[in-house]
């Protein structure tokens, strides 16, 4: 009896061991099946990384989501989106974390760029006038001849300012645009009176607004505000790259999209304390409470799943064509400005 018991125990162990071995063997092909990255070291440019506009990028970087996808991403931060784009055009960066509308602008110049994962579903840009320099401001016409701060000339903050001016009957040439970045430099420029108005992102604009230093005249930090300004949803920050790069590096682009969507999924349930613990201290601009107030204001504008909305793409083209004569709406092939192929797979993978 004891002998039979011993044999039964031994056969159970062998079976268990065999099952574990079989499970491990079954798991191996899945690991091997992960597509080989065509390029694992990626140079990524961004214009104003500390802004909430690019929070998903920072989260994915800080939480190691790029590394988890086998990527070594080196992020170069520039004063604004236009300069970050120049880095890709010049060949010093592979991919840009920037505003979707740059893909339309570049196609108008016969350069094909494509967005492949969305970070923001609203521009998060506010336009405000200085209460110190323009205490008697009444209408857009009052901005004629004034100095307007933007993150960098040609960036999305500049485009938003152009749109606001055009609706008030002014041309871009009626004002002077000054690049002030998206962090401490922007605060200093307005507070010291170097500029009369500013088009910028959060947390900068909320910090100035809460202290009564700017009067907000146009606001796209919420989904409702975005529809009021642009007439529909407006895709904002995304990862985009030259089309030939995407075609040659599909597995690498998939890995980048995976990392961003993983970050978006984390952001859906993250509390203010989680954000504070994750972003670099310098992003708080010395005021933790105001930083969190800003986050609460823009939270709904962060993409949920990385998917670029087709109606938003049409809104972007209509908005750009309304004030930029170099963009002929009928000459732009919108289908080439974006793809949801990678974001869709990432969404399914992470259940975002």
From TrEMBL:
Primary location group: periplasm
InterPro entries in alphabetical order: SsuA/THI5, TAT_signal
Key words, A-Z: Signal
Domain SsuA/THI5-like per the UniProt entry, residue ranges: 53-267
Compartment list: Periplasm
One Pfam match: NMT1
Keyword Signal: yes
Signal sequence extent: 1-16
Family: Belongs to the bacterial solute-binding protein SsuA/TauA family.
Protein name (Swiss-Prot/TrEMBL): ABC transporter substrate-binding protein
Annotated organism of origin: Polaromonas jejuensis
Source organism phylogeny: Bacteria, Pseudomonadati, Pseudomonadota, Betaproteobacteria, Burkholderiales
């Amino acid at each position: 009896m004891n002998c039979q018991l011993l044999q039964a125990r031994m056969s159970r162990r062998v079976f268990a061991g065999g099952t574990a071995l079989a499970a491990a063997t079954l798991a191996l092909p899945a690991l091997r099946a992960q597509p080989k990255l065509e390029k694992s070291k990626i140079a990524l440019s961004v214009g104003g990384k500390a802004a909430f506009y690019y929070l998903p990028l920072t989260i994915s970087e800080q939480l190691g989501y790029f590394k988890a996808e086998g990527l070594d991403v080196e992020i170069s931060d520039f004063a604004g989106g236009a300069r970050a784009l120049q880095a890709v055009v010049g060949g010093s960066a592979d991919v840009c974390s920037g505003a979707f509308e740059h893909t339309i602008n570049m196609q108008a110049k016969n350069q094909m760029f494509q967005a492949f994962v969305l970070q923001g579903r609203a521009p998060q840009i506010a336009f405000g006038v200085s209460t110190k320099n323009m205490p008697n401001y009444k209408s857009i016409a009052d901005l004629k001849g004034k100095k307007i701060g933007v993150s960098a000339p040609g960036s999305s903050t500049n485009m938003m300012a152009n749109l606001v001016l055009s609706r008030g009957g002014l041309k871009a040439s009626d004002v002077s645009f000054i690049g002030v970045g998206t962090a401490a430099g922007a605060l200093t420029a307005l507070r010291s009176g170097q500029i009369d108005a500013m088009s910028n992102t959060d947390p900068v604009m909320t910090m100035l607004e809460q202290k009564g230093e700017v009067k907000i005249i146009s606001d796209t930090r919420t989904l409702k505000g975005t529809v009021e300004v642009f007439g529909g949803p407006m895709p904002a920050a995304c990862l985009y790259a030259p089309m030939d790069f995407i075609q040659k590096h599909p597995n690498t682009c998939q890995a980048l999209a995976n990392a961003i969507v993983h970050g978006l999924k984390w952001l859906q349930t993250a509390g203010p304390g989680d954000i504070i613990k994750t972003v670099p201290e310098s992003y708080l601009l010395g005021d933790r409470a105001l930083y969190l107030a800003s986050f609460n204001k823009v939270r709904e504008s962060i993409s949920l799943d990385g998917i670029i909305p087709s109606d938003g793409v049409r809104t972007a083209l209509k908005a750009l064509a309304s004030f930029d004569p170099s963009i002929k709406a009928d000459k732009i092939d919108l289908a080439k400005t974006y793809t949801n192929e990678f974001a869709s797979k990432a969404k399914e993978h992470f259940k975002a």
